[in-house]
Amino acid sequence: MHKPLLRRRHFNWTLLALASWGFVAPIAAAPEQRILVVGDSLSAEYGLSRGTGWVALLQKQLASEKPGAAVINASISGDTTSGGRSRLPALLKRHQPSHVIIELGGNDALRGLPMRMTQDNLLRMTQQAQAAGAQVLLLGMQMPPNYGPDMARQFEAAFAQVAKSQKAALVPFFLKGIGDDPEPLKWFQADRIHPNEAAQARMLANVWPTLKKQLK
Description:
This protein is an alpha/beta fold and 216 residues long. It has 7 helices and 5 strands, in the order αβαβαβααβαβα. Helix 2 (54-65) links the parallel strand 1 and strand 2. The protein is globular.
């Protein structure tokens, strides 16, 4: 028998022995579920300490309840539905998520962008994600009251219509209990636009029940 073959067999037996004694680390398995969050400043920890936003809190929640899941936060402060739509194909290809959370639309409203365009972007993003094999969760937003009741109703309905037409999951109002609180200023930063650190747990609480059902 050739010596190289003897060495190879000796090496293989050594590996088996080390593995049986716990000295060889197992190969890490890929996450069973990958949750891609495509959002704006509400999800990008704008004005917050790193690791305190609702997406970071979601990762901690998953670690305790769904250890086979991971979160990819692809949120960018200031992003619109148009920006999210243009970024999504590459994100889907790179991360191959099992779930996609779309948290966009607030900046569209603040900039006065056409309602039809916002709804179409949300629709196309939902369809793209579903075509890639992902379940979609839309986080609905509401317009400030100074925009008028008609615009507010149309904007709120846009999320519901997309979710219904594509059979996607929906959180009707992402900032429920925050933006509609009788004293909302206690939940916002000094700019009165971005939720503060105390509001992040409430934001997660609005998302988690619906997302948890999807993860089963």
